[in-house]
């Protein structure tokens, strides 16, 4: 079996489970909305910076351009990360998971503050337990690095 | 405004945007299926091990027990990671993101091989480009560490 998708297509589809998990054919699985979850980590610090979604077009654009493109569910449009903020993410590696329904990007951000709130990472708060069994948040990043 | 959820509830709900992003109240946002995306990374190596989903019950169990509980979408049931495989994940930290609709777990796996295929991480393959513009996978982990 070839490890290439059909002529004219960038990605394969409909692999059986063994080929999907153990093979070298890339057949990304998009959900019922045509989206795939995407985890973005800093290539050098390994910090998880953000979580977003891609559609087939943003995945193709990311692979071809070497910069992160997502799908904005709130704006319902392609989103070239950093196009307006300057927060371009240069992609150093892309991985997928065992059943090829998640994408992991390793990136070098071109300026600090991946999160729109102004922190380096969107995951700037940890979850802590109160004595009464309820949960609260604690800031792990205390200073904003971007507007 | 108190940083506690209403009496009898572990989590708050329906915060306005500023309190959600800038505050200390934990109000996890579950999707239309009652699930929240969960990224699991190794607390020491920072390697992203897996991506899964939690419902409200698995999140509560994870917070209370200090071990990772997920929601299996394929089996449609609560999933105490490692209960059958021995791959228990001790949680050292839990974070959430800016709009509180993603969870990030830092864990110490109690035995190697977080992925059911046998690799340390589910993200054992990178995506590479062929000369003709199609994509293929390349194994970044070459040896299985678990059955």
Just give the CATH class of the domain at 30-113 in chain A. Alpha Beta
Spans of at least 5 consecutive residues with low confidence of chain A: none
Amount of beta strand of chain A: 25-35%
Helix content of chain A: 10-25%
Largest interface, Cβ cutoff 8 Å: A-B, 52 and 52 residues
Give the mean pLDDT of chain A: 94
Q: What structural class do helix, strand and pairing data of chain A support?
A: mainly beta
Any idea what the shape of chain A is? globular
- The CATH superfamily of the domain at 30-113 in chain A is identified as Phosphoribosyl-AMP cyclohydrolase
Can you write the helix and strand succession of chain A as a string?
A: HEEHEEEEEE
Q: Whole-number radius of gyration of chain A?
A: 18 Å
Oligomer: homodimer
Number of helices of chain A: 2
> Order of strands across the widest beta sheet of chain A?
2-1-6-5
Description:
2 copies of one chain form a homodimer. Chain A has 147 residues and is mostly beta strands. Chain A has a domain at 30-113: Ubiquitin-like (UB roll), CATH 3.10.20. In chain A, 11% of the residues lie in helices and 32% in strands. Chain A has 2 helices and 8 strands; from the N terminus they run αββαββββββ. Chain A has helices at 17-22, 56-65, and strands at 36-42, 48-54, 69-72, 77-80, 89-96, 103-109, 125-129, 135-139. In chain A, the strands form 3 sheets. The first copy, chain A, has a 4-stranded mixed sheet with strand order 2-1-6-5, with helices on one face. In chain A, strands 3-4 form a two-stranded antiparallel ribbon. In chain A, a hairpin with a 5-residue loop joins strand 7 and strand 8. The longest helix of chain A is centred in the middle third of the chain and has 10 residues, at 56-65. The model of chain A has no long low-confidence stretch (mean pLDDT 94). Chains A and B meet through strand 1, strand 2, strand 5, strand 7 and strand 8 of A and strand 1, strand 2, strand 5, strand 7 and strand 8 of B.
């Amino acid at each position: 079996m070839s490890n290439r998708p059909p002529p004219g297509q960038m990605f394969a589809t409909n692999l059986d489970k063994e080929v999907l998990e153990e093979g070298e054919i890339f057949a990304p699985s998009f959900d019922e909305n045509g989206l795939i979850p995407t985890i973005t980590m800093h290539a050098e610090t390994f910090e998880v910076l953000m979580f977003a979604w891609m559609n087939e077009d943003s995945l193709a654009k990311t692979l071809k351009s070497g910069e992160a493109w997502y799908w904005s569910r709130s704006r319902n449009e392609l989103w070239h990360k950093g196009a307006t903020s300057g927060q371009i993410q240069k992609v150093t590696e892309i991985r997928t998971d065992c059943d090829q329904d998640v994408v992991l990007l390793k990136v070098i951000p071109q300026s600090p503050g991946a999160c729109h709130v102004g922190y380096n990472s969107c995951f700037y708060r940890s979850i802590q337990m109160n004595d009464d069994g309820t949960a609260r948040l604690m800031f792990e990043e205390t200073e904003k690095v971007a507007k």
